[in-house]
Amino acid sequence: MDPIKYIFEKPALTERIARWQMLLSEYDIVYVTQKSIKGSALAEYLAHQPISDYQPMQPEFPDEDIMALFVENKEDKNEKAWTVLFDGASNVMGHGIGAVLIFPENQYIPMTARLCFNCTNNIAEYEACAMGIRAAIESKAKILNVYRDSALVIHQLKGEWETRDTKLIPYQAYIRGLIEYFDSITFNHIPREDNQLAYALATLSSMFEVDQDAELPMIEMKSRAEPAYCHFIEEEVDGKPWYFDIKHYLKTREYPEKASENDKRALRRLAGGFMLSGDILYKRNHDLVLLRCVDAKEAELVLKEVHEGTFGTHMNGHSMARKILRAGYFWLTMENDCCTHVRKCEKCQVYADNINVPPTTLNVLSAPWPFSMWGIDVIGAIEPKAVLTPSLS
C-alpha cells in the first residue's frame, strides 16, 4: 500500500525497483512509518469537505413569547409532486433510453425508446431525461422531482458543474426551456439500486430492434415466491406421484398429452438425471450414487423416521436432508420439507437449547438481618461495603 516503504524495504530487487532505489539514494531518505492519529481523523474529514456558505450558530432565541414554530408548506394541497426516473444505455447492440413517470397516486407509466443514430452515453442520458420531462408536461404536472443515478447529468442540469462538451450544450438548453412549464422542479442523484426499473427499460430498448411496421409485443411481469414445480409436486391431486411423467417417458419414450415444445425439451433434459430399473425410478446423484425416488406419502414416513425414529436425534432441517440423501432417498422438495417438519416438531420446541439466563443481574429484595431485628424495612439490595451495624447506645 505504501510505495516508498516497498522500494526501501524490498529484499529482492528487480530491475525497475533497483533503478528507483538508486535514484532516491542520493537524497539520504530515512523512511519512518507514521503512526495512526485517531484524533485528527475528524479534522481531516472536515478539511477535505469545506463548506462555502458557512454561517455561525446563533443560540439566542429571537422571541421568548413564541410557543411553537411551523414550517409553511409551499406546495398547494391540490397539487402534489410527480416523479420521473430516467436512464440511458449504450452498448454494442445499440442505444436505448428508458423513463418512468410516477403519479402522485403511485401509478407508474414506463416509457422506452431506441435511438437509431450514433450517440454517446451522456447524450442517451439527456434524451431519456427529455423524454420523461415531456411526458410530465403532457400529463399537466406542475411540481416535478427528477431522479437519476448519473452524477454528471444531474449536476450539469442543476448548474453546479460546467458543460464543456459541445454535443451536450444544446440538450442542456432544451431541457432548461422545458423547465419553464413547471412551477417547481428539482434534480436529485440516487444510487443505482433505486433506479433499476429505468435501467431495465433502457437496456431492453438498446438490445431490441424495433420494426416500425410490425406490432410491438406487450410484456407482462409477474412475481412468484416458489418454484414452478412445487405447485403440482406437493398437491398430487390426480393421485399420481411427482415423477410420473419422467417415469412414463423413460419407459415408453412418450410425452404427456397437450405438451408444448418447451415442455418436451424440459422433460428430456430433466429425465437425463434419472434411471429406471424395473418399476423403480432412481435419481443419479453428483457422485453417481443412485437415490430411490419416493412420493409424498413415503416422504412423510421417511421424515418421521429420520427425525424422531429409532436412530433419530431431532437434528435440524439441513442436516436431516443430508442424512436422507445418505440413506438413499430423494424427492425434489426434500430440503424445504425437512425444514418445515423441524419447525412443526413439538419436542424440538419444548427441549430447544434456549438461553434462560436473564439479561441483567437480579437484585435481592430481602433486608439484612441487623435491620430486620430493629424493625427497619429496607427496599432494594445493599452492597456488603454499605451495610451498617446498629450501635449499643
Automatic annotation (TrEMBL):
Protein name per its UniProtKB record: Uncharacterized protein LOC106766069
PROSITE patterns named among the record's database cross-references: RNASE_H_1
GO molecular function, one term: nucleic acid binding
Pfam families (UniProt xref): Integrase_H2C2 (PF17921), RVT_3 (PF13456)
Ranges of residues in domain RNase H type-1: 78-207
SUPFAM superfamilies per UniProt: Ribonuclease H-like
